[in-house]
Amino acid sequence: MDATPQRPWTRSYAPGVPATVADPPGSLVDLLTDAARRFGPRVALDFYGATTSYAELTGQVARAAEALRRLGVGPGDRVALVLPNCPQHVVAFYAVLRLGAVVVEHNPLYTAQELAHQLTDHGARVAIVWDKVAPLVTGRGAVREVVAVDLTGALPPLKRWALRLPLPKVRAARAAMTAPAPGAHSWSALVAAAPPLPADHPAPAVDDVALLQYTGGTTGVPKGAVLTHRNLRANAAQGRAWVPGLRDGEETVYAVLPLFHAYGLTLCLTFAVGIGATLVLFPRFDLDQVLDAVRRRPPTFLPAVPPIYQRLATAARERGVDLTSIRYAISGAMALPPDTVQLWESVTGGLLVEGYGMTETSPITLGNPVAAGRRPGTVGVPFPSTEVRIVDPEEPTRDRTPGEAGELLVRGPQVFSGYWNRPEETAKVLLPGGWLRTGDIVTMDPDGFVTVVDRIKELIITGGFNVYPSEVEEVLRRVPGVRDAAAVGLPGTDGEEVVAAVVLDPGVGADPESVRTSCRQHLAGYKVPRRVVVVDDLPRSQIGKVLRREVRDRLLAER
């Protein structure tokens, strides 16, 4: 199990990318401190034009840390963040870490039930929340202190003034950003009243826990992945090494991904800070707002997901907006269509490459080289200091032969230490020697490029044959009139049967049987959907990934 594998992929690295990265010299707090030392006057945050320098950011973090200390937050305590992208989110994240406490990120669009489960699980006593969702958090789990954040407080003065105008449209815009939070502390008042945390207050160590990030993992049961300062800082360093053309202190990164998601957190909260970038924050992805920001502060680096690249490039071309400042773009979370790559690169002149990761790996483990040698359709090669193996999913001690599909195992400094208070779940995925079972079936070519075939848990077994949903979905999306599709397995007479949910283009009235007929031209008989169900839309995660489990649950309920 512990034999060091060969690393053929390093010869596929872009020029200047090292095979390994150095161990992190300190915690994430040190990452911010170093950025402020090197780039103090530089704009760290831009929120609708309101700016915060790195020097100002560290000052705000120090005062926020003292305010939280006065609420009783200490080393090892969990603090829940339930916030969209905003300057207060960045300050709160680093303030919690400065105290040696643990950040727990939550989606502010979750229901009360979803939040209650996670709050009960991790036991945070203090929650820093968007004021609009404060009622969903108050009194849940072990929470005793709720600190409410008013997003309008971070807007430029003119925009804050405009939101006070007695106009219906303005009132609606204000209501979308803020709401009263009775019984909660005011974030702005707490921070304004606090002096800076004393400089000699104990700081976290590199191996202390920094973050609990909830994920369905490989089993679908929400649980908190335990990530240390070392894990997160190592992944930020790996990302920096992966793009040697970056210029520290000169880049502008757009935070269109939610910071509460592992992908957005690392690329925007740690990677961007590590290179002294200006982070332009968007509470949610809004095409018009992003294009307006491009005119004001052009981006140079954009982490996003395929639908965002498609929409941005199409709109920019139609409206004559210049995106050529974006030299590098990194796509993740779902397959990146080659036609999206072609469109994006023709509009920007920059590179768009795909990567791969999961919450348990901070999150990135593989990436396409940021160079001409990238291979669209693959998720790239292992990051520096990252090892991979491809094994028999039924017997993970047995390696597959080269080119044969199997489960991907990864090992590296970014791999988590386990699930919060779930030793049995941890034992299922963390193998001896530090190998993490990803639950993904992949193939690897001789140059180390990995192609994801599908997830083990979403594999459909029908008549004794394995059917990979992504293969079926790819064929379905090529059927004229089908805009999107999800393939799942439902109980049938012979194990499972393949069932497809399809979204049609507007005005198209495709016959489900004709869709099945089209599939028969490209799929073996047992892979052709037994049923095709037309739906208005498909359930998606916050970053746009189709949630096959929810599709399956809906189809079962309708049955």
UniProtKB/TrEMBL annotation:
Instruction: Identify this protein by name.
Output: Long-chain acyl-CoA synthetase
Signal peptide boundaries? none
Q: From the UniProt record, which GO molecular function terms apply? A: acid-thiol ligase activity
Q: Where are the transmembrane segments?
A: 260-282
Keyword Transmembrane among UniProt keywords: yes
- Organism the protein comes from: Micromonospora auratinigra
Q: Which residues form the AMP-binding enzyme C-terminal domain?
A: 471-545
Arranged from A to Z, the UniProt key words for this protein are: Membrane, Transmembrane, Transmembrane helix
Q: Reply yes or no: does the keyword Transcription apply.
A: no
Superkingdom of the organism of origin: Bacteria
Segments forming domain AMP-dependent synthetase/ligase: 33-420
